[in-house]
Amino acid sequence: MMMLDRAIRSHSADRRLDARRRSASENDALVMTQIQQANRPVSAYDIADRVSQISSFMVPNQVYRTLARLISQGRVVRIESLSGYFPAQPQGDVCLICTHCHAVSFRPAPEVVATLRRLAKAGGYAVSAVVIEAHGQCATCARTV
Ligand SMILES: [Zn+2]
User: Fold this and answer.
1) Which of 13, 27, 70, 99 lies 20 to 30 A from 7 at CA?
2) Residue 35's pLDDT is what?
3) Buried b (16+ CB within 10 A) or exposed e, 41-75
4) Is 34 exposed, middle or buried, given 0-12, 13-18 or 19+ CB atoms closer than 10 A?
5) CATH 1.25.40.10 is the classification of domain 1-88
6) Ligand 1 mean position to 40 CA, how many Å?
7) Which backbone phi and psi does 107 adopt, to 5 degrees?
8) Has this prediction a pTM greater than 0.70?
9) Low-confidence ranges of the chain (pLDDT < 70)
10) What's the topology of domain 89-145?
């Protein structure tokens, strides 16, 4: 029994050691793959679990650092109302979220963003980010649910 405990501890230590040895670009690829395969917004903890199942252990702090890098590169967006992460979409000013199947789609709406910025400026606000998210049912769910 002690040998098994020692073997399990040793395996865990190896997995942690592997995680420290992974390069930033390897972490980027692992996290990006999990976000793309999920096909819905995923939390940092879900990403950590998914990566740890297919590769060596990844702690949430590593996931958060990797996500910050991917967001700054314009590859990932944070869905604020779900605290989840999703692949960035070109021309996505408005995020539509299905509350039934969790599908996410983005639509261009530069006029909406411009209106918000104009209203904010008129009110004396210096806007640093505009996030527009709407919840409802996607076309498929609206027909079938
Ligand atoms: Zn749906």
Assistant:
1) 27
2) 96
3) bbebebbbebbbeebbbbeeebbeebbebbeeeeb
4) buried
5) no
6) 11
7) -130, 140
8) yes
9) 1-20
10) Dna Ligase; domain 1 (3.30.1490)
Write out the DSSP string of 77-132: EEEGGGTEEEE--TT-SEEEEETTT--EEEE--HHHHHHHHHHHHHTT---S---E
CA of 95 to the centre of ligand 1 (A): 14
| CA 127 to ligand 1 centroid distance, Å | 32
Residue 73 confidence (pLDDT): 95
Tell me the CA–centroid distance for residue 14 and ligand 1, in Å. 42
Distance 73 CA to ligand 1 centre (A): 29
Which pLDDT belongs to residue 136? Answer: 97
Domain ranges of the chain: 1-88, 89-145
Task: Please report the pLDDT score of residue 80 as a whole number.
Answer: 93
